[in-house]
Design brief:
This protein is of the alpha/beta class and 321 residues long. Helices cover 44% and strands 13% of the residues. The strands form 2 sheets. Strands 1-2-3-4-6-8-9-10 form an 8-stranded parallel beta barrel. The protein has a two-stranded antiparallel sheet with strand order 5-7. Helix 7 packs parallel to helix 8. This is Xylose isomerase domain protein TIM barrel.
């Protein structure tokens, strides 16, 4: 198993290190094997191929209205439209995803992560369900199939790792939907990626790390072995936001509020839910013994280099303790 750390191509992530070579050297010094690099909507921004082990493809949160011709919320610049909706048309969704895959392939990564989900501002702030996971998964399969169809043999140039979230789409909570999605893909160069924090966000019952590990192993242990074998990567982090989410003071009581204000509240809400904390207990080793992934990414949100060092070392001690 290769252990990686997350980083993005954006200046706020790279500037503390000074160069990509120093960023890689820093993470190797902590016992890691490489970097999983989030690429940008407009390209790879000059990241050298030799510092990249894997990539995370750009992600937009509410692409379903474009795909299905639904009502569009908000007024955006062209750049903001790509960031929030994936473009301004159904054709944009396909062509942009195709470009993200092509750009990623220039770095020769082991895989590229794709968020298999959709959510609207109303869903984040109000708890509403807009599309249903079945519809999201079938629409995503259509979109990815079309995007990769032009590549040789109809296969993506990068192995696609489909990542779970707690919104509608891939959650690992419905076996029938897992089978439906897998059978809807027209290509074979793909796998699943488990994000532990995202799976923990599907419940409000966990109050500590033992609760979290019990929930994770219960859900994942209930998956058929052939599904678990399809989970080739793990994003490992802890999220214990359940108690906060049980207090429904976040519910969206003013849908007439300016959309951009609501969008900002939605982003802040998401950051409180998805905490990206390190595991501290060796119980997290149970998860890896169950899943046996090929890749594990220590995925954190870090304040600075020392915070990054502390979180990575904390979780690595937990894994090896």
């Amino acid at each position: 198993m290769k252990e990686l750390a997350n980083i993005s191509v954006y200046p706020f992530d790279l500037e503390p290190f000074g160069s990509w070579e120093r960023a890689l050297e820093f993470h190797l010094s902590l016992g890691l094997d490489g970097l999983e690099v989030l690429t940008a909507f407009d390209g790879t921004m000059g990241v050298p191929k030799d510092v990249v082990t894997a990539v995370h493809l750009p992600f937009c949160m509410d692409w379903m209205p474009l795909w299905n011709g639904g009502e569009l919320e908000g007024s955006f610049s062209p750049e903001e439209e790509v960031y929030f909706r994936g473009g301004s048309s159904r054709e944009d969704l396909v062509s942009n995803l195709r470009r993200y895959l092509f750009d990623a392939s220039s770095l020769d990564p082991a895989y590229g992560v794709f968020h298999l989900t959709n959510t609207s501002v109303g869903e984040v702030l109000g708890g509403m369900k807009a599309n249903g996971s079945r519809s999201v998964l079938l629409s995503a399969a259509e979109m990815v199939n079309e995007a990769v169809s032009i590549f040789p043999q109809g296969e993506p140039p990068v192995r696609v790792f489909f990542e779970n979230l707690w919104w509608e789409g891939l959650t690992f909570l419905d076996l029938d939907l897992l089978d439906l999605f897998a059978s809807s893909l027209n290509f074979s160069n793909w796998a699943f990626l488990l994000d532990t924090g995202h799976l923990l966000n599907t419940t409000t019952t966990c109050r500590n790390e033992d609760d979290a590990m019990d929930y994770l192993t219960s859900v994942l242990g209930g998956l058929p072995k052939e599904i678990r074998s399809r989970i080739e990567g793990v994003h490992l982090s802890l999220s214990l936001s359940g108690e906060m989410r049980e207090v429904h003071d976040w519910l969206d009581h003013d849908p007439e509020e300016d959309f951009m204000v609501r969008l900002d509240r939605a982003w802040r809400r998401m950051s409180k839910i998805d905490q990206h904390r390190p595991f501290r207990t060796s119980a997290c080793r149970r998860l890896l013994d169950l899943m046996e992934p090929d890749y594990l990414t220590h995925e954190f949100i870090c304040d600075d280099i020392e915070d990054r060092r502390s979180k990575i070392l904390t979780q690595r001690r937990a894994l090896n303790g």
